[in-house]
Amino acid sequence: MAELLYGLMAEFDDPKTLVDVTRRAYAEGYRQMDAYSPFPIEELSDALGIHGTAVPALVLLGGIVGGLAGYGLQYWVAAIAYPLNVGGRPFNSWPAFVPVTFEMTVLLAALTAVVGMLALNRLPMVYHPVFNVARFALATRDRFFLCIEASDPKFDPHATREFLQSLAPREVSDVAP
Length: 177
Description:
Layout: E1 7-12, H1 15-28, E2 33-36, H2 44-48, H3 55-81, H4 94-120, E3 144-149, H5 157-166, E4 171-175
Antiparallel strand pairs: 1-3, 1-4, 2-3
């Protein structure tokens, strides 16, 4: 039955309850879960066990690569490919290379931030199985949902359903893939 499910989704009435039940699910050992609400809830990330992201490291790496690429291109052009002695300055005139190096650093860091954020969030996602649950349309208005995915190692359809029922939700729904 677990192969026929994306997961089980429980519906709650208020954000405090959602945070509390998410903490209980995490303490129970569930790790592959997600919570949905009509507005951001600051405590929810900690309750889900989401603590960090790779985006800052990717941006740093993108900035370093951009800076090296900008400087390297200018060095190659000025000192190797087309060396011109203008006014007796050296071929590797680093003060003249600073503006382009800076701009390439910022450009590649920004592009890496956007592409990294999209990739890590698995976007664009034109379809998600939670939209198969009819009551999920209320997630944009006044309902709060916790979905435990079938890919979780602890997921057992019957035991997980009983656990979710013990949290006193409005309803527990099967999420078809």
